[in-house]
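Researcher: Please translate sequence to structure tokens.
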Amino acid sequence: MAMPLTCLLSSVHTSQDIRIYYKESRTLIRAGYSLTLIIQNDRDEVREGVKIVALPKATNRFQRMALSSLKVFQRALREQADIYHFHDPELIPAGILLKVLTRKRVIYDVHEDLAKDIMSKDWIPWPLRRPIAWGTRIMERLGSRFFDAIVAATDDIANNFKNHRRSVAIRNYPALNFPDLPPRKDDGRFTMIYVGLLSPERGITEIVKALEYLEAPESVRLILCGEFSPPSYEKSLRSLVVSDRVEFVGWVNPMEARQKMGQADVGLVCYHPEENHMKAMPNKLFEYMIAGIAVLSSDFPLWKEIVEGNRCGMTVNPLKPRDIAAALSNLRSNPGLRLEMGINGKKSVLEKYNWDNEAKKLLNLYQDLLIEKRV
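Model: Translation complete:
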């Protein structure tokens, strides 16, 4: 008997997205589901059993939110899936139409707290942010009534949908198939790494400025893996006087990123204290931990609980480059402490912060949706 067809949808992300492809899609394929992924990709293909229906990359925000969303809906409708599982708030109208027209199961996978995220969008004029954020919160809650389930990336996001009949937190913890990394090559340099979107609100400027306050700067290296947002940010970052100590790698796939983590001493995640960051659980935080390297993170209460509670790193005020530098100097001068932190972080992921536990919740949700009788 053929397994049900599930269709994952995104107009924003690419086929290399860690949550959508490497975690959820692989989990469903391994459980025997037939799966179509409609997402940005350079061509239609079948990859590891996943049928990828390619969307071209949108050239601007309007094109993505309007035209790409329409294309996603049209292509999803053709699939005649048993479950539609979409990942972007701009696809809420498409999700509602799919529910109304097909009467199939529809899941909304919420990666970010949309209202809090809007409050930090520089391209939205400040006086408009709060009313837009309020409006989008109402839109999400009203739209969610059409959906059979809400999947949230954090407990905090799940709490926004606590009145929904079925809301489950499926966290962005790393998969345990993390490859064994080669031994750290000692080239005499203290190496730090950041993996992810390179943007001002993610503290990249402060991280780079912190290098000015480190002793023996010639033996310090900062690896930045990711794309700039906005693209114009690259010029201002490169103009900093210490940028010759920074290696701009650009975007790398998850496996390459993990290899680079293995050659670093410290993993950085120093986001600014904005509303959408305070209770986020960045994938990179746990990737650093499973890679066995010490972590330096922002001193948000939730992050302090994870990082300091598991003795796998240090936390710091992300707005103060001198404080970042002081913490890095401490880690730099204590290789034994870094080693202990790396061991503790890896142990914590193996025991509790891992995708295996979250995958079971995803599969249980799918099973419940498929076996329950329609009202």
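Researcher: Any highlights?
Model: The two ends are 25 Å apart (CA to CA).
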